[in-house]
Design a protein that fits this description.
Blueprint lengths: L1 H36 L2 H5 L5 H16 L15 H37 L5 H22 L1 H12 L20 H31 L1
Helix pairs in contact: 1-4, 1-7, 5-6, 5-7
C-alpha cells in the first residue's frame, strides 16, 4: 500500500517536473517570438540588437541551468547584488526541478509499465481527470488577474523581495516583460493539461478493450 502510494507520488511529480522542464526549454523558442510579438526592443529602449539580446538571454539561461556556472554575467546587462541573489534563487529552483525529474523518471516509468502489464491502466483515469482540472483552474485565475497571480506566485516561492527589480540597477527586467512570463505560465498549463489528457486517454482505452 505504502509502496504503491510512493509510485503514485513519483508519477505525478514526474509529470509536473516534466511539464516545467519542457516549458523552460521552450522559452528558447518562445522568447524570440515574444521579442517581436511584444515589440520588446522598442518598448524597453535598450540599445542592443536582437542578436545581442538573444545572446544575453542565452547567457542568463546557461547560468540558470548549469551548476558549474556560479556567477551570472551578461555582456550587455549589469546585475545588482539583489538581482544576482534572485537569479541565484531561481537557479536553485531550476536545479531542484531537474533533480526531481531525474529521480522520479525510473519509478514513474516502472509504475506505468506495471500498470500496463497488469492491465490496470484504468486506475489512471480518475486521477488524471482530476489532474486535468488543475491547469484549467490556475489558468482561469491567471486570466482573471495575472498581476496578482504573478505576485502571489513569487510570494509563495521566494522568502525575500529580491524579485522586485529596479530597472535602473537591473535593466534586464525591461526586456523580460510580464507578458512574456504570462506566456510561459500558459505554456506550462497547456503542457500539463496535454500530459494529463494523454494519461487519461490511455486509461480510457482499457475500458474499451
Amino acid at each position: 500500500m505504502i509502496r504503491r502510494f510512493g509510485f503514485w507520488v513519483a508519477l505525478w511529480l514526474f509529470v509536473l517536473s516534466a511539464a516545467i522542464v519542457i516549458t523552460i526549454l521552450g522559452t528558447f523558442i518562445l522568447y524570440p517570438i515574444d521579442v517581436h510579438f511584444l515589440d520588446i526592443l522598442d518598448q524597453s529602449n535598450v540599445q542592443v540588437t536582437f542578436g545581442q539580446l538573444y545572446a544575453n538571454f542565452a547567457q542568463l539561461m546557461a547560468y540558470l541551468h548549469f551548476p558549474w556556472i556560479t556567477t551570472l554575467h551578461m555582456t550587455n546587462f549589469p546585475v545588482s547584488s539583489t538581482g544576482a541573489q534572485h537569479f541565484s534563487d531561481v537557479k536553485n529552483l531550476f536545479l531542484l526541478d531537474y533533480a526531481i525529474l531525474i529521480i522520479t523518471a525510473w519509478p514513474a516509468w516502472h509504475f506505468l509499465g506495471q500498470l500496463k502489464k497488469n492491465r490496470e491502466t484504468w486506475r489512471l483515469y480518475r486521477q488524471s481527470t482530476v489532474a486535468m482540472g488543475v491547469p484549467i483552474v490556475l489558468g482561469a485565475l491567471a486570466l482573471m488577474g495575472f498581476d496578482r497571480f504573478f505576485v502571489t506566485f513569487h510570494e509563495i516561492l521566494f522568502r525575500n523581495s529580491d524579485w522586485i527589480f529596479d530597472p535602473a540597477k537591473d535593466p534586464i527586467i525591461t526586456v523580460l516583460p510580464e507578458d512574456f512570463f504570462a506566456h510561459t505560465f500558459f505554456l506550462a498549463f497547456i503542457l500539463l493539461e496535454l500530459i494529463c489528457w494523454g494519461l487519461r486517454h490511455w486509461a480510457k482505452k482499457q475500458f474499451r478493450a
